[in-house]
Design goal:
about 450 residues; Immunoglobulin-like; 2 domains; five-stranded mixed beta sheet; globular
Length: about 450
C-alpha cells in the first residue's frame, strides 16, 4: 500500500490514542499462564482458555482460580504453532461439546493442523472423547491462522494460514490461506461455494481474528500482513481477498488488474506499519459506552487494544482509537462477559515478547466508578444526541424555576464545566479538549438529576 494513501486513510478515519483509557480500570484475573491463545466467556460463566503448549483451562473470573480441563497429548508447540483456536457449542448445556484447532505431527513426522471436537464432563471438570472433524491441513512454525467461531446457523468457521507457502492462498483446492466452513459434525455444508469443499473464502495470509456482528449477519476477520498492511476484512462467501498478489487496498498498478479480474474484496481497515493484529470481538454493551458498536482488536507487535468505531451498518470504520499501548505487552485475544466487562489475554511468553514476573495473564477492563456523591439514579435526564459532539440538548423534569445550574464531571469527579441551563430542552455546549464519558449533574427542587454523556471529539 502506498504511504500517501495510508496517511490519507488514517486521517479520514481519525486514528487517535485516546485519553478515554483513563476512564477504565484494570484488574489482573489470572497469572502465570503460558501463551494464552484463545479466551472465551463460557456458558458456565468461567473464562475458557487455550494455552499454546496444549492445555485448556477454565478460569474463575472472580477468584482467578485455574482448573485444567485437558492437556491434549498430541498437540505440538513449534514456533508459533501448537494449541490455538477454540469454540464452544451453542448447545453446550445439552451436549457439552467444544471444538479446538491445533498443530500435531502426522505420520512421517510432517507438521499438520486439525480440528477436533471434545466432550466436557461437568461432574469431573475434565474433557475427553476426541472426534477429529478435519485434519491433514498443512502447518508450519508460523502462518497457521486457526481462529474459530460458530455462526448463528451452527456452522464451524475457522481460518487457516498459508503455512509459509504463499501460492496455497490462491489455490482453491488447498485448505491453506482460507476461511473454512463445516458442519458441527465435520461434514461439508451443501451451500458452500465449492461442492464437497470446506473453502468459504480464499486469498488470506495469516488471519488470527474472527467476530460476528450482534445480528450474526457480518463476519469480521483480522489478518497479519507481511511488512505492510495488516487488515480487517468482512468475510463473504466465495470471495478472494488477494494475498499474495494484493496487500491491503487495491491501490497500485500491480494490484488493480488482479483485483478487477479476481473480484477481490478490499479490507475495511489496513495498517502500515503492521501491528500484528490478533483476536477480536464485537462490543455491543452499554457498560463501556464509548466502545459500543466497536470492534475491539488486540495486537501483538504494537502491544495495544484498538477500538474500531463502525458506521451504523457495520460495513466501514469511522475511527480507530488505541488503548493500553505498551502497558501490558503483547495482546493475543479478547472476550466479553454478558454484563459488558472486557478481558484481554497477555502473550509475552510466546517467544517474541519480554515476559514479566507474573506473565502471561488475563486482565479485566471495566469503567472507573465515579467519585461524585449524591446522585439519584431514579431521576434521569434526557440527553440527545448521545454520543454527542460539540453540543447536546438536555431535557429535565418540569420545575417552577426558569433556569437551573449544572456541573459536568469526568468519571474521576473532576469538574469539566459549570453553567446555567435556561430552556427545557436546553442546548449544552461540550468541552472540545475532552473525550469519553462525562456525567452531567443538575440540582433543583431538592433533587439531584444526573446522566452520562459520551463526548466524541
Amino acid at each position: 500500500m502506498k504511504t500517501l494513501v495510508l496517511i490519507s486513510t488514517l486521517l479520514i478515519i481519525g486514528l487517535t490514542t485516546s485519553n478515554a483509557q483513563n476512564n477504565l480500570k484494570t484488574r489482573t484475573v489470572a497469572t502465570n499462564l503460558d501463551t494464552p491463545w484463545e479466551i472465551i466467556w463460557g456458558p458456565d460463566n468461567f473464562i475458557w482458555v487455550t494455552e499454546r503448549m496444549g492445555k485448556i483451562s477454565r478460569i474463575n473470573p472472580s477468584t482467578g482460580a485455574v482448573s485444567e480441563v485437558i492437556q491434549i497429548a498430541d498437540a505440538r508447540e513449534v514456533g508459533e504453532g501448537g494449541l490455538l483456536g477454540m469454540a464452544i457449542d451453542p448447545d453446550f448445556s445439552a451436549n457439552n461439546f467444544f471444538y479446538v484447532g491445533y498443530n500435531y505431527y502426522a505420520s512421517g513426522n510432517i507438521y499438520r493442523e486439525k480440528i477436533v471436537r471434545f466432550t466436557y464432563n461437568p461432574a469431573t471438570g475434565k474433557a475427553g472423547s476426541p472426534i477429529i472433524l478435519l485434519d491433514n491441513i498443512d502447518a508450519a512454525s508460523t502462518h497457521n491462522g486457526c481462529r474459530m467461531v460458530i455462526s448463528p446457523d451452527k456452522k464451524l468457521i475457522f481460518t487457516t494460514g498459508d503455512a509459509q507457502v504463499t501460492s496455497k492462498s490462491q489455490d482453491v483446492k488447498s485448505l491453506n490461506g482460507k476461511t473454512l466452513r463445516i458442519n458441527l459434525d465435520g461434514t461439508v455444508p451443501a451451500d458452500n461455494p465449492f461442492p464437497g469443499s470446506p473453502v468459504w473464502s480464499w486469498g488470506h495470509r495469516n488471519p488470527q481474528g474472527l467476530a460476528f456482528s450482534p445480528d450474526g449477519k457480518i463476519l469480521y476477520s483480522s489478518e497479519h500482513g507481511s511488512n505492510t498492511n495488516d487488515e480487517v476484512n468482512i468475510i463473504q462467501k466465495g470471495r478472494n481477498y488477494g494475498w499474495p498478489q494484493v496487500q491491503g487496498f487495491c491501490d497500485n498498478s500491480g494490484e488493480t488488474a488482479f483485483c478487477r479480474d479476481s473480484n477481490v474484496v478490499e479490507p475495511i481497515q489496513a495498517w502500515t506499519p503492521t501491528l500484528a493484529v490478533a483476536g477480536m470481538v464485537f462490543y455491543n454493551s452499554d457498560l463501556i459506552p464509548e466502545w459500543k458498536n466497536n470492534l475491539l482488536v488486540t495486537s501483538l507487535k504494537s502491544s495495544r487494544l484498538t477500538a474500531l468505531q463502525l458506521n451504523e451498518s457495520g460495513t466501514s470504520v469511522l475511527k480507530a482509537t488505541d488503548y493500553f499501548t505498551n502497558v501490558f505487552g503483547r495482546l493475543r485475544d479478547v472476550c466479553i462477559s454478558p454484563d459488558g466487562k472486557v478481558y484481554i489475554a497477555v502473550s509475552n511468553r510466546d517467544g517474541r515478547g519480554s515476559p514479566r514476573t507474573d506473565d502471561d495473564k488475563i486482565v479485566e477492563l471495566t469503567p472507573v466508578s465515579t467519585n461524585i456523591s449524591g446522585i439519584s439514579k431514579e431521576n434521569v435526564l434526557g440527553i440527545f444526541p448521545n454520543p454527542g459532539k460539540d453540543f447536546v440538548y438536555v431535557s429535565y423534569p418540569e420545575s417552577k424555576k426558569t433556569e437551573v445550574n449544572y456541573s459536568l464531571f469526568n468519571v474521576n469527579g473532576q469538574i469539566l464545566k459549570t453553567g446555567t441551563l435556561k430552556l427545557n430542552p436546553a442546548k449544552l455546549s461540550l468541552p472540545t479538549d475532552y473525550e469519553g464519558v462525562a456525567i452531567l449533574k443538575i440540582v433543583f427542587d431538592n433533587q439531584v438529576f444526573s446522566e452520562k454523556i459520551l463526548i466524541k471529539n
